[in-house]
């Protein structure tokens, strides 16, 4: 860990001003950032501690819910409104990390969680995300946990989180405060980026921008599932995950909002899947066509080739469970 | 006073069955348990030493080469940095178990990616860690072989008997499979750590080590000191699983720094360093061939394996160790070969050999049972050899048949043959499988001193370690049983080279070896007490602090008077097992659920039945077996060291990415302990238990996967992708 300065932000504007510096990072729960600093993957000159800002509440807003950026994962997953109206979110959060980590991890911090790529976390290996221009060790290396969708020749890392996958299915928005005191709001589906030739940028946050909340739209009901496939049953990142909001009437889909984790540099959402499914009768053949859309541009890197059929099967499993097909 | 026994004959007296205290075998809690669970037991890195400096090992990202220059100046100018050491006595590899001499030196000759070559010492840990990362080490790198399948291998052992190929050709039923297992890490909870202090003449090191008398010799040899100049202390060890058998790099580095700087120096490996620099279990490539007649009786048995290690290392994962004696078959071919590649040192990781060798044989046996239409339990019962199938020696004791039968009954084993995919619960295929367990037994020389103190309490002392296994409890129980004292009246001191040298913990030798040393010491004390009374010690009954004999009774303190009475027990293995095959045996039964969509496999329940001689403490023995069965789950489903094919570095070097089972992966596990007396194994009739619980159980899980979903998977661990690839559609 490099020596660093520590500043405690008392007000949001103060935090934004400090975070505008390229060598400054905001610190909330620290469950990811501090680990990466120990490894010298992250080497900020200054940490601005935002954990005391008043962003810790969950409040009803319009017909939806506003979850403050500093609400812990544990608190969100336990909130009665979240559990009743957005169970996919609670399920996704509880599928991730461990209780101890969830107690510390925050909503905003979790959105900014960095990849688990082995080459990113080892400073003696090439990694374009950590050190642009140094190359990608994973493409020719151990790529078991890596992406099959939206990759680039520069980076095949995945976004590792679960919560954001549920938020993408829910079409939640990220509320962001800017350095000049204004704010903007970005759909979660657009918050994370594909690597392209700038894999060092995980998401669309600009210097000086700080996440203040996540807003959930009005509840939509239906069946809400989060399926996470992993080698061990807890404390493992997803090989593939699916968040699903599904509703049927008269044996036809009226809603099929799906998002996928473990497959790409961002929670993957393809609007064509809902377009295909809504109005159709559930069947294995239909689910296969949905998977064809999902995996249209999929590319494996040897070790992770299995993710392509695994994603197809996991998608089918979730839609079978939601629709009763094959039960 | 001392009592020495070189055991040349079986001890059939079963003394511990005749004593009266009634504590031997009892499921007593470990006396130090509360200290450990409340965080008040002090581990190596936790000692306070005035003026202690902090050292961090510097590793280089080169797979083979030589250090040509180290730019010390730059980091020496950093705040807090006191020294940069690149002493030629630093060790690049850990010592193998029971080596008793320095491991490979100098550290600056690099043989694997991430080898430590230097140590940065600073006022604070954070300063040292940062400086260690920034230290520029120039290394002349060379290419090196990385792939065990791509190099010529050298033969390590082979047994040929009869003609296996002919037996295979003639067999009514045969199986010929090739199975791979990946490398394993010990992944002990406590990272390797040392705190060294040098007073100008003597070195004192708090360390996390398993076998102190060997470790002292290894450290002294590494440093060029006499053994009596070195004191090692390891009263508590937070797991070792083989990775702390030999002295490792941080101990030598801390000692050198303390000697050079004249101040205490602490070196703790990071979690990543633990994975990268201590011993790994070799990956294996195995072929198993079974030939059987129409009744399933084995006529041929073949087991060949390729493992790997660094050049210059004598250790070869002894994959075939129990294959020699587990099953019958006149025509035999067993062959082990070693490929020389540049990964970190391969060495003993819990149950070396059997931990990966038995499960493949057990998979083949399951396939043979299906082919021959015989129940898998019955097939094994039919193939238990009367004598060692290669050397004709009789078994000293073998509870395998009972373990198979009682385990099957307890588990509720349903007889076969049956077709797989017979039971589905929702998305999950449910199936069961079984396997035998076997682990060879050995004992080593051990000493322990037992002192009866005025007032009628006792003190047991040996440099033996407790690596979480229950040594404190069982040595107290042996002494309590022999001396007629409640365990609460016995203090056990361990883990200090100032004490009589025990066996150390490793190879499941500790309980039988050190237990025997304590037993011998107590026999000496009993004779002393009897002498005072003018009677024969056989006529003595010691119970609850009272001494009774046919002529009367006395309170122990009264008989002892004001002076302590002590005796050193000295146990040495002799010829008692020369004409016998000595091994521990057992059986595993597992039920798994396999997801029909994703191939995820979860173990739903597991039963293990084990016979390992006398049970010294039913609670700690059960815990050892449970730990072993947990390893079986990781071995079968999740654990795998992932080496980069390009530069050979270990990719998954933390507990988030190297997947040991978590609580949720470990279901209710039932353990049956079958009492047994093995007179040849040790004077206390005990055999090794520690490692038996993981010798074969992964095969039971593999067989259950097949019974559940029809997938025969021949690569461990059986991750979802591998199960899916082998699973029939539908």
Named CATH architecture of the largest domain in chain B: 2-Layer Sandwich
Report how far the terminal alpha carbons of chain A are from each other.
53 Å
Proportion of strand residues of chain A: 15-25%
Q: How are the strands ordered across the major sheet of chain B?
A: 4-6-2-14-11-12-13
Q: Helical content of chain A, roughly?
A: 25-40%
In order across it, which strands form the biggest sheet of chain A?
Answer: 4-5-8-6-7
Strand proportion of chain B, as a percent range, falls in 25-35%
- How large is the radius of gyration of chain A? 19 Å
Mean pLDDT of chain B: 97
Going by helix content, strand content and strand pairing, the class of chain A is alpha+beta
Number of strands of chain B: 32
Rg over alpha carbons of chain B? 26 Å
Helical content class of chain B: 25-40%
The level 1 CATH classification of the domain at 223-323 in chain A is Alpha Beta
Q: What is this entry, summarized?
A:
The complex is a heterodimer of chains A (about 325) and B (about 725). Chain A is α+β, with helices and mostly antiparallel strands and about 325 residues long. Chain A is built from 12 helices and 11 strands.
């Amino acid at each position: 860990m490099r020596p660093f300065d520590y500043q405690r932000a008392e007000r949001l504007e103060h935090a934004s001003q400090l975070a505008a510096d390229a060598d400054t990072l905001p610190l909330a729960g620290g469950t990811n950032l501090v680990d990466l600093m120990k490894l010298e993957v992250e080497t900020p000159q200054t940490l601005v501690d935002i954990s005391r800002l008043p962003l810790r509440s969950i409040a009803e807003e319009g017909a939806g819910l506003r979850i403050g950026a500093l609400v812990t994962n544990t608190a969100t997953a336990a909130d009665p409104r979240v559990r009743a109206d957005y169970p996919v979110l609670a399920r996704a959060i509880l599928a991730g990390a461990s209780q101890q980590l969830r107690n510390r991890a925050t909503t905003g911090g979790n959105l900014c969680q960095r990849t688990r790529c082995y080459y990113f976390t080892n400073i003696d290996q090439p990694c374009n995300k950590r050190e642009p221009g140094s190359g990608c060790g994973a493409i020719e290396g151990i790529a078991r946990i890596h992406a099959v969708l939206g990759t680039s020749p520069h980076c095949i890392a995945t976004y590792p989180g679960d919560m954001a996958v549920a938020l993408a299915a829910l079409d939640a928005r990220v509320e962001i405060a800017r350095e000049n005191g204004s704010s903007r709001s970005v759909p979660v589906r657009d918050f994370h980026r594909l690597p392209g030739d700038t894999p060092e940028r995980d998401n669309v946050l600009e210097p000086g921008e700080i996440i203040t909340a996540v807003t959930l739209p009005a509840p939509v009901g239906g069946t809400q599932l989060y399926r996470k496939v992993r080698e061990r049953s807890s404390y493992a990142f997803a090989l593939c995950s699916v968040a699903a909001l599904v509703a049927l009437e008269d044996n036809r889909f009226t809603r099929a909002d799906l998002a996928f984790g473990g497959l790409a540099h961002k929670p993957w959402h393809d609007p064509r899947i809902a377009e295909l499914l809504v109005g159709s009768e559930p069947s294995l053949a239909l689910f296969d066509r949905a998977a064809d859309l999902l995996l249209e541009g999929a590319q494996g890197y040897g070790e992770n080739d299995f993710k392509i059929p695994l994603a197809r099967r996991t998608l089918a499993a979730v839609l079978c469970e939601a629709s009763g097909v094959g039960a | 006073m001392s009592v020495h026994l070189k055991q040349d004959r079986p001890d059939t007296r079963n003394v511990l069955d005749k004593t009266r205290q009634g504590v031997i075998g009892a499921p007593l809690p470990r006396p130090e348990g509360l200290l450990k669970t409340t965080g008040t037991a002090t581990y190596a890195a936790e000692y306070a030493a005035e003026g202690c400096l902090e050292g961090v090992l510097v590793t280089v990202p080169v797979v083979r080469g030589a250090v040509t220059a180290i730019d010390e100046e730059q980091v020496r100018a950093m705040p807090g940095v006191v020294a940069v050491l690149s002493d030629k006595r630093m060790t690049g590899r850990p010592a193998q178990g029971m080596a008793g001499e320095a491991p490979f030196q100098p550290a600056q000759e690099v043989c694997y990616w991430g080898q430590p070559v230097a140590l940065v010492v600073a006022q604070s840990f954070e300063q040292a860690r940062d400086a260690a990362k920034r230290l520029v080490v120039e290394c002349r790198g060379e290419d090196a072989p990385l792939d065990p399948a791509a190099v010529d291998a050298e033969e390590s052992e082979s047994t040929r008997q009869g003609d296996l190929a002919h037996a295979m050709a003639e067999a009514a039923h045969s199986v010929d499979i090739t199975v791979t297992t990946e490398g394993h890490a010990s992944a002990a909870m406590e990272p390797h750590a040392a705190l060294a202090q040098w007073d100008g003449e003597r070195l004192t090191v708090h360390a996390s080590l398993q076998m102190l008398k060997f470790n002292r010799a290894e450290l002294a040899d590494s440093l060029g000191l006499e053994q009596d100049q070195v004191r090692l202390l390891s009263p508590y060890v937070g797991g070792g699983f083989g990775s702390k058998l030999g002295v490792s790099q941080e101990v030598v580095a801390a000692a050198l720094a303390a000697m050079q700087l004249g101040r205490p120096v602490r070196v703790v490996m990071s979690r990543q360093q633990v994975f990268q620099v201590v011993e790994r279990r070799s990956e294996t490539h195995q072929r198993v061939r079974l030939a059987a007649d129409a009744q399933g009786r084995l006529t041929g048995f073949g087991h060949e394996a390729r493992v790997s290690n660094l050049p210059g290392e004598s250790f070869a994962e002894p994959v075939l160790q129990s294959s020699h004696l587990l099953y019958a078959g006149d025509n035999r071919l067993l062959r082990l070969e070693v490929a020389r590649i540049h990964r970190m040192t391969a060495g003993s990781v819990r149950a070396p050999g059997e931990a990966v060798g038995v499960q493949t044989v057990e998979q083949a046996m399951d396939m043979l049972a299906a082919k021959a239409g015989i129940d898998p339990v019955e097939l094994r019962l039919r193939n238990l050899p009367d004598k060692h199938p290669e050397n004709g020696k009789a078994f000293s004791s073998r509870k395998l048949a009972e373990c198979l039968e009682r385990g099957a009954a307890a588990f509720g084993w349903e007889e076969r043959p049956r077709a797989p995919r017979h039971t589905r619960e929702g998305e999950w295929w449910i199936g069961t499988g079984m396997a035998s367990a076997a682990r060879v037994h050995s004992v080593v020389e051990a000493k322990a001193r037992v002192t009866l103190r005025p007032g009628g309490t006792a003190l047991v002392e040996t440099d033996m370690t407790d690596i979480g296994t229950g040594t404190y409890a069982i040595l107290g129980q042996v002494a309590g049983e022999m001396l007629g004292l409640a365990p609460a009246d016995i203090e056990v001191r361990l883990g200090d080279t100032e004490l009589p040298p025990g066996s150390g913990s490793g190879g499941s030798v500790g309980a039988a070896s050190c237990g025997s040393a304590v037993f011998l010491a107590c026999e000496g004390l009993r004779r002393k007490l009897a002498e005072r009374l003018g009677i024969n010690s056989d006529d003595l009954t010691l119970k609850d602090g009272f001494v009774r004999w046919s002529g009367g009774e006395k309170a122990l303190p009264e008989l002892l008077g004001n002076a302590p009475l002590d005796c050193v027990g000295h146990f040495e293995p002799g010829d008692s097992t020369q004409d016998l095959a000595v091994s521990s045996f057992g059986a595993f039964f597992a039920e798994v659920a396999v997801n029909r969509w994703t191939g995820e496999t979860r173990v739903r329940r597991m039963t293990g039945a084990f016979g390992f001689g006398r049970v010294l403490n039913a609670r700690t023995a059960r815990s050892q077996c449970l730990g072993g069965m947990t390893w079986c789950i990781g071995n079968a489903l999740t654990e795998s060291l992932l080496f980069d094919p390009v530069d050979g570095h270990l990719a998954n070097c933390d507990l988030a990415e190297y997947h040991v089972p978590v609580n949720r992966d470990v279901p209710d596990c039932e353990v049956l302990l079958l009492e047994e007396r093995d007179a040849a194994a040790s004077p206390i009739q005990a055999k090794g238990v520690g490692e038996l619980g993981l010798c074969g159980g992964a095969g039971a899980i593999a067989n259950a996967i097949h019974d559940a979903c029809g997938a025969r998977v021949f690569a461990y661990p059986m991750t979802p992708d591998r199960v899916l690839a082998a699973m029939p559609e539908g």
